[in-house]
């Protein structure tokens, strides 16, 4: 038994060091990812539940590294946050998404909202407002078509600062969305103090809608209260016809998820949008 314990310990400690090594490899590659042009954006449609038409799109960051292959945002975004690299990366995301939107407009595609995710560090960065202002000017992006997605956690800590910053961003004409709603600590009562336009119901409530009566109740309550506050309500992670039907019955405004489209490359999204124009 003593022998076994020893082996277990060795196994455990070598696992820790291989994890540390992995993390260091990830971090050093992430530091060079921007200059090596390893990032790209995938675009996922948001669809109006009444008309079935595409109303907007969310830009989602993708990283392909020679050594590591494709790395999921769930893995590298937390590292980018901890190291502060996310501020630079986030600026690149916003600028690239805006340039893409302008390019689609020039191709004659219908105007759509472009949603960009903000990270905790970006939101805390004192240059955020100046960055957004500069990117709008540099790209010629219509501010009314830009929507920034933030999470509840970013705004509940320093409420006064958050309200000031969000109000200033709104004054640029940019829209604001609360992402992953229902997973954080804010309440809808608090939300009424923030100048937001959109509420995105977290995927965890949508996933089991067909079978989970609690999730049904929570989802319809969020939709109803969002409407009371005159917010556009978007359901995330819609994968089935049943979920779509339920959301339509609850008069949810929009949906996003694999059922309509996965996040796709720019050309593929342009094709989706182009098809829509024809109908
Ligand atoms: P998110 O902002 O909540 O984005 C939605 C995630 O759900 C995306 O994962 C998307 O691919 C996935 N998804 C969409 N529809 C479905 C569905 O029907 N079923 C399932 N199972 N998943 C679906 P992704 O692209 O891996 O991104 C994960 C998270 O990484 C994002 O969650 C966001 O928090 C973060 N992220 C992605 N891009 C950026 C970025 O440019 N900046 C920042 N700060 N965070 C980003
Ligand atoms: Ca998002
Ligand atoms: Ca989300
Ligand atoms: Ca549940």
Automatic annotation (TrEMBL):
Full-sequence range covered: 601 to 879 of 879
Residue ranges of domain EAL in the record: 23-277
Transmembrane segments: none
Protein name: EAL domain-containing protein
